[in-house]
Design goal:
binds copper (II) ion, single chain, 5 helices, alpha+beta
Length: 190
């Protein structure tokens, strides 16, 4: 009994330390199996089951933990949202460019799914920013999918904020502008 208790206590001491180390390295702390399961939740199973799964660090460093066969990659956001994201090749390049603070994404036209929703950072004036500041608050996004193309609100007439219509241009006026479509990806059946 004593031995079991002692090793149990040791495990308790070790786990939070390991978690801290993982966070210090900017990594999500789930084990691979848990991570894969959570990341697959980002898109309908017909897409996520064949997708690659990769870990992403806050600065955009990517480590693939499962290869895929359909051009999609699923990950979990390395921030407080921990939201699953599944993007095609262009979309994954787009998110990596955004995370690593590149001035613009390498290509437009990517498709990304966020079937569990996510969050964005909003200023008191209602501006949606790419990074949090001391002024911004976290606002929840419902399940949605995205067309990662810098659509211009002036020429398209599409609003720049969430609205009853269900679509808007996020980060309008920046190279990372994209169309947010409030449709649950899991409802998109073939
Ligand atoms: Cu978005």
């Amino acid at each position: 009994m004593r031995l079991i208790t002692a090793s149990g206590a040791a495990a308790l001491l070790v786990l939070p330390w390991a978690a801290l180390q993982a966070q210090a390295a900017g990594q999500t702390k789930e084990g691979d199996t848990e991570f894969i399961k959570a990341a697959e939740e980002g898109a309908p199973p017909r897409i996520s089951e064949k997708a690659a799964i990769a870990r992403m660090e806050p600065k955009g460093k990517v480590t693939t933990i499962r290869p895929g066969s359909n051009g999609f990659t699923c990950t979990l956001f390395p921030d407080e949202s921990h939201a699953p994201f599944c993007g095609d090749h262009k979309a994954f390049q787009w998110i990596v460019a955004a995370m690593s603070e590149q001035p613009k994404p390498p290509a437009a036209g990517g498709i990304a799914y966020m079937a569990k929703g996510g969050l964005h950072y909003e200023t008191p004036k209602g501006e949606i920013l790419m990074r949090p500041t001391s002024e911004t608050k976290n606002v929840k996004e419902p399940p949605h999918w995205m067309l990662l193309t810098p659509i211009d609100p002036a020429t398209s007439g599409i609003p720049t904020h969430p609205n009853a219509g269900g679509s808007y241009i996020m980060f309008a006026g920046t190279p990372y502008a994209h169309l947010m479509i409030y449709q649950d990806p899991k409802m998109l059946k073939e």
